[in-house]
Amino acid sequence: MRRPIKFFFTSVGLIIALMAIGMLLSAAFRVKPEEINKLNLIEELQWYRLGFYIAVLLAWSWISKFMTRPKLFDNDTNVEQRTKAEEKRLQDYLALKSKRVHIGLLFVFFEIVVIRQFGL
């Protein structure tokens, strides 16, 4: 239960950081709100989104390994507990690594429905 909460807060934190960076860059380059409103961000940012989708899918094995990295053990934990934890981590890693197709389909759904249809 802890990992999804940690993943959620990390994702939300990164989105907020990206928004703050965008606001700072627009203030630094003196971009007026009217100029931003004239842009068609759906078409303008299409290649960046597709590049991001491809990068995530290509790096999915590494992302899976990072998300299932082992926790630190105390010196008083025995070998049996460490072995069980390592087996569980390996099972989680293999299960998460096999979800690459599902992540790709999620990106396709997001691009077609959320971006193209709703224009968000």
Overview of this structure, please?
The chain is mainly alpha-helical and 120 residues long. 79% of the residues lie in helices and 0% in strands. The protein is built from 7 helices and no strands. It has helices spanning 2-28, 33-38, 41-44, 46-58, 60-67, 79-97, 100-117. It is elongated, with a radius of gyration of 20 Å. The protein starts with a helix and ends with a helix. 0% of the residues are buried. The model has no long low-confidence stretch (mean pLDDT 84).
Q: Cα distance, first to last residue?
A: 30 Å
**Proportion of β residues?**
under 5%
- Low-pLDDT parts are none
Largest beta sheet, briefly?
Answer: none
State the helical fraction.
over 70%
H/E element order: HHHHHHH
Instruction: Please give the number of β-strands.
Output: 0
What's the average pLDDT?
84
Please count the helical segments.
7
Shape: elongated
Q: What integer value in Å does the Rg equal?
A: 20 Å
Helix/strand-derived class?
mainly alpha
